[in-house]
Amino acid sequence: MLRVGLTGGIGAGKSTASAVLDELGAIIIDADQIAREVVAPGTPGLERLVEAFGRDILLDDGSLNRPALAAKAFKDDESRLRLNSIVHPLVGQRTAELTESAADDAILVHDIPLLIENAIGPTCNLVLVVHAEVEQRIERLTGMRGMPEEDARARIAAQATDEQRRAAADVWLDNTGEPHELEEQVRKVWEARLVPFERNLRERRPASASLELHQPDSDSEAAGARVVARLRFLAGELAQRVDYIGPSSGPGPLATDVLDIQITVASMEVADELAPKLENGGFPRVPNLTSDSSLAGTDASERPKRLHASADPGRPANVYVLREGG
């Protein structure tokens, strides 16, 4: 299955994007909804919140008074971290259960407000970020949700910055315009990137570079860092190093968008052990006489290596798995 992370600052329009993806056929795992479930009346989660923040966070019927909790939990970093330490493990456990029950060909969208803050991006095949300017978000929160402006600004200040979101975003969804414009962007990403990415992943097939998705002004360094983070997550202790080499050079409009990344391992036996992890994570093996050569040499180009490639049509990448030292 394809695992997509969806995030955005409070008031940015993430719920709109999630609704469109749901309509298109994605399976939505909504972290906020799960977070409500794990602190429902009678749950251990709610009991722990009361212990941490006091009984005045409860309504008369015993359910959670969310504005009262937010006023306490978002007043400073220590309180916010205390809230996260209680809720996040419970949300993680329930998320794992829902993920395991999804079909093999599913496009699973993890709707997570704090995806970036909690460094969850590398666990996903792709991250979508919905963006709106701060003042637009303030207006939406105060006008549409009735949130006091002071609380809205405190919530925004406690979340990731736009710069952090841009660095984490494989797809940047601009919601500074009309709602239908965001919906159109989501539909295009679904058809041109998510659906073929899922098919490539399931069929263990490298992607073909897509002119439709080509973004010549995109930051290859940031893209390389995202792919490296995913590969480090997939490889775990099997990798000695994961290094971004740079964009490929050559003729054609897409040449500099093909990322070259190198994973160094202790032996080719480890490379073979690593192969299914990379394939399951969206980097299928590419049989190649040069990359499969067993001839050792002092030069890196002659060392035994395996070649994998990204299944993502929006960001092609070559991943070379080499034995340390030749």
From TrEMBL:
<comment type="pathway">
    <text>Cofactor biosynthesis; coenzyme A biosynthesis; CoA from (R)-pantothenate: step 5/5.</text>
</comment>
<comment type="similarity">
    <text>Belongs to the CoaE family.</text>
</comment>
<dbReference type="GO" id="GO:0004140">
    <property type="term" value="F:dephospho-CoA kinase activity"/>
</dbReference>
<keyword id="KW-0808">Transferase</keyword>
<dbReference type="InterPro" id="IPR027417">
    <property type="entry name" value="P-loop_NTPase"/>
</dbReference>
<feature type="binding site">
    <location>
        <begin position="11"/>
        <end position="16"/>
    </location>
    <ligand>
        <name>ATP</name>
    </ligand>
</feature>
<keyword id="KW-0173">Coenzyme A biosynthesis</keyword>
<feature type="region of interest" description="Disordered">
    <location>
        <begin position="278"/>
        <end position="326"/>
    </location>
</feature>
<protein>
    <recommendedName>
        <fullName>Dephospho-CoA kinase</fullName>
        <ecNumber>2.7.1.24</ecNumber>
    </recommendedName>
</protein>
<keyword id="KW-0067">ATP-binding</keyword>
<dbReference type="Pfam" id="PF01121">
    <property type="entry name" value="CoaE"/>
</dbReference>
<dbReference type="GO" id="GO:0005524">
    <property type="term" value="F:ATP binding"/>
</dbReference>
<dbReference type="InterPro" id="IPR007344">
    <property type="entry name" value="GrpB/CoaE"/>
</dbReference>
<keyword id="KW-0547">Nucleotide-binding</keyword>
<dbReference type="GO" id="GO:0005737">
    <property type="term" value="C:cytoplasm"/>
</dbReference>
<comment type="similarity">
    <text>In the C-terminal section; belongs to the UPF0157 (GrpB) family.</text>
</comment>
<keyword id="KW-0963">Cytoplasm</keyword>
<dbReference type="InterPro" id="IPR043519">
    <property type="entry name" value="NT_sf"/>
</dbReference>
<dbReference type="Pfam" id="PF04229">
    <property type="entry name" value="GrpB"/>
</dbReference>
<comment type="function">
    <text>Catalyzes the phosphorylation of the 3'-hydroxyl group of dephosphocoenzyme A to form coenzyme A.</text>
</comment>
<dbReference type="GO" id="GO:0015937">
    <property type="term" value="P:coenzyme A biosynthetic process"/>
</dbReference>
<keyword id="KW-0418">Kinase</keyword>
<dbReference type="InterPro" id="IPR001977">
    <property type="entry name" value="Depp_CoAkinase"/>
</dbReference>
